[in-house]
Design brief:
This protein has 345 residues and is α/β, with parallel strands linked by helices. It folds into two domains: 251 residues, TIM Barrel (Alpha-Beta Barrel), CATH 3.20.20.70; 70 residues, Alpha-Beta Complex (Type Iii Antifreeze Protein Isoform Hplc 12). The chain is built from twelve helices and twelve strands. Strands 3-4-5-6-7-8-9-10 form an eight-stranded parallel beta barrel, surrounded by six helices. A two-stranded antiparallel ribbon has the order 1-2. A two-stranded antiparallel sheet has the order 11-12.
Length: 345
């Protein structure tokens, strides 16, 4: 099955040539408080993000009792009805909504909410039965590659395609919280795209917004960043998250990066640079007064930035015109043009 370079994501498109999709990862930073989740979604919309992502994890179905994960997720779950309300709120505010479901039963009821995609988190990368089941829904898959080897990623993609998936986005990420700058490995974005021929994004676990903006320059088509209302709160993902103001900065920086990377088709240089070419590029001029009939030489030719509207031949003509006589006298700094020369027979 051939991979698609552009995929549908709710009402948006993801891939080269489309705006980078900025996903605010709410996860469980709402701590099980649906009102806090609603405030986060409203803040995310105001900051200009494109989508929200939750984590919809049944603690008993995903984690062994006594583990830290079981403890955290047991106290931070939204009900099915609350999750549906949050999806509806996100859509009312113009956001796409999706979530990570970690087991078959949760996947089924989440799918009934028509998410923009199903998220396969790094911790689920080797859960090929779940990946195949998620693919069978016909929805796009967003697959994080943190913790995964090349073989793990390939195996996950095989499961996705076995389930019928056609629309897949890989997310490069480093599963360190926070990720030190030297471990961000942003060059991996291009490597994954080349290796698997899929659109690739970046799940950013670094502090701040620089890595996300740089990821756009590396070809990322989707960005995922944790958000919170208060980074000082203990536990969960608050400490590695952006507050609404930080998310707004990230959105602004990403959009600036897109404008910087964009190039008008067929314009090299662009039309608005033509005037600058006329002003700044050097050309051949008379080094001093040259009487008519005098042969050009290294002594009487200069290469300078000319006066406006008085361009001579370009510097690459220098060697060719040596020895040619000027047809009419040239004053110092006059341009030396083709029509001013007596060409060799």
């Amino acid at each position: 099955m051939s991979a698609r370079k552009t995929i549908a994501f709710g009402n948006r498109a993801i891939g080269s040539g489309h705006p980078v999709c900025i996903v605010a990862e709410i996860g469980i930073n709402h701590e099980g408080d649906v009102a806090a989740c609603a405030r986060l979604i409203e803040a995310v919309a105001a900051a200009g993000a494109d989508a929200i992502k939750l984590q919809t994890i049944d603690a008993d179905a995903n984690y062994v009792r006594g583990t830290k994960s079981h403890e955290i997720f047991s106290g931070a779950a939204l009900t099915r009805e609350e999750t549906a309300r949050m999806f509806a709120l996100a859509r009312e505010l113009g956001l796409e909504a999706f979530t990570t479901a970690g087991d078959f039963e949760t996947l089924a009821w989440v799918d009934a909410l028509a998410p923009a995609a199903h998220k396969i988190s790094s911790g689920l990368l080797t859960h090929t039965p779940l990946i195949e089941r998620a693919a069978a829904t016909g929805r796009p898959l967003v697959v994080s590659t943190g913790l995964g080897t090349e073989d793990d990623i390939a195996r996950a993609l095989d499961a996705a395609r076995k389930g019928g998936a056609q629309d897949i986005v890989l997310l490069h990420c480093t599963s360190l919280y926070p990720t030190p700058p030297e471990r961000a490995r942003l060059s991996r974005i291009g490597q994954l795209e080349k290796r698997f021929s899929l659109p690739v994004g970046f799940s950013d676990h670094t502090e701040g917004t620089l890595a996300s903006a740089l990821a756009v320059a590396c070809g990322a088509v989707m960005l995922e960043k944790h958000v919170t209302l208060d980074r000082t709160r203990a536990g969960f993902d608050h400490a590695i998250s952006l507050e609404p103001e930080g998310l707004a900065d990230l959105v602004a920086n990403v959009r600036r990066a897109e404008r910087m990377l964009a190039a008008p088709q067929g314009e090299t240089p662009s039309k608005d640079e033509e005037a600058a070419r006329e002003r700044y590029l050097r050309c051949l001029v008379a080094a001093h007064d040259i009487p008519a009939g005098t042969a050009l030489s290294k002594e009487n030719i200069a290469i300078k930035r000319p006066l406006p509207g008085r361009r001579g031949l370009p510097p690459w003509e220098y060697e060719r015109v040596l020895g040619l006589p000027v047809a009419k006298a040239r004053l110092a700094d006059d341009p030396i043009r083709a029509e001013d020369l007596e060409e060799r027979p």
